[in-house]
Design a protein that fits this description.
single chain; Cathepsin D, subunit A, domain 1; 5-stranded mixed beta barrel; 1 helix; Peptidase_aspartic_dom_sf; hydrolase
């Protein structure tokens, strides 16, 4: 299943996300990941990679939640930075934790895991895809 999402705090609108109920954690394709301190707090700076046919890069900064060891379906363990940012899907918005990792060999740059789905109180019908309309960027007045 796939859906359109926004990550407005990171300035990213109209991302294709793969819904993966078999994955616990959500992840975002990122490179050039650099932890840093801001006002005594841990932050991370990274380049998000968007799009599948046309590659776009977007430089982001976000507070660092933690560093987590993630085990892949093949059993490989990788240490990843974790951020939390608001995500919109359809008319809903809620905070989602994303691990930052290289997904350049994957078709979808964003993967939504089961924790994000449960927190957002979403019901998944695997027979359907792109149930929500593609998001549009709104100006400050709220008009499309």
């Amino acid at each position: 299943m796939r859906e359109w999402i926004n990550l407005p705090e990171l300035g990213m609108i109209g991302l294709r996300a793969k819904i993966d109920t078999g994955a616990s954690t959500s992840c975002l394709h990122a490179s050039d990941i650099q932890p840093f301190q801001r006002d005594g707090e841990d932050w991370v700076r990274f380049t998000a990679h968007l799009g599948t046919l046309v590659q776009r890069r977007h430089r982001c900064e976000a507070p660092l939640v933690t560093v987590k060891n993630i085990k892949s379906s093949t059993g490989h363990v990788q240490s990843r930075y974790v951020i939390r940012t608001d995500m919109t899907l359809g008319d809903r918005m809620w905070p989602v934790e994303f691990t930052l990792t290289c997904r350049k060999t994957m078709r979808y740059r964003v993967l939504l895991g089961s924790k994000a789905l449960v927190t957002g109180q979403l019901v998944v019908n695997p027979a359907l895809t792109y149930v929500q309309d593609k998001p549009v960027l709104l100006d400050i007045s709220g008009a499309p």
